[in-house]
Amino acid sequence: MLDILQNSWPWYVAGPLIGLTVPLLLILGNKSFGISSSLRHICASCFPANISFFKYNWRQEFWNLIFVLGIFIGGFLAAQFLSDPNPVVVNENLKSELVQYSISDYSNLVPQDLFSWESLFTLRGFLLMVVGGFLVGFGTRYAGGCTSGHSIMGLSNLQWPSLVATICFMIGGFIMANYILPIILSL
């Protein structure tokens, strides 16, 4: 059993399991799946201010905060007790391409050459972590939700705005991965 939990699951197992959260949330509690709204709930609960965006009954969405807390706890437990001690397996073609960008450390899930305290203080690291994080947050707010809310919950409910948002997510990801990211990695 431990071996099953320590290895990657194929998409045809993991995808349906993620997809099953939508009907379970709807059937068991008439709740919508989404993660980005939890930041709004945290801000509304911790920083009560006279801001109209945070004036709502966040206690009705307390389950969402518990759900996100469960994600953090599950991630921590998985990293501590279920992680594979071997280096991440990376395709040889990708390795040869990444060497051109001075990326060669595959000891963690994310390359330490890009995501570490040392690289944060470089232009490349600042663009990837700080500017990228800001753009993800801004885009999530602008789109009215994140990929989990739109692409999992919204599409399963046949919501037109979620289809448009998901198409935009995919186009943006394609442009970023193929055109912008190589420029940033060259810095």
Describe the structure.
- This protein is mostly helical and 187 residues long.
- The protein folds into two domains: 1-83, no CATH class; 114-187.
- The chain is 66% helix and 0% strand.
- The protein is built from nine helices and no strands.
- The protein has helices at residues 2-6, 11-29, 37-46, 62-81, 92-99, 117-120, 123-143, 147-156, 160-185.
Total number of strands: 0
The topology string of helices and strands comes to: HHHHHHHHH
Number of helices: 9
Structural class: mainly alpha
Range of strand content: under 5%
Overall geometry = globular
Helix content: 55-70%
- Domains, number: 2
- Alpha-carbon Rg, integer: 19 Å
Spans of at least 5 consecutive residues whose pLDDT stays below 50 are none
- What is the average of the pLDDT values? 87
Largest sheet: none
CA(first)-CA(last) distance: 44 Å
Summarize the structure.
The protein is mostly helical. The protein has nine helices and no strands.
Helix and strand layout, with pairings?
Elements: H1 2-6, H2 11-29, H3 37-46, H4 62-81, H5 92-99, H6 117-120, H7 123-143, H8 147-156, H9 160-185
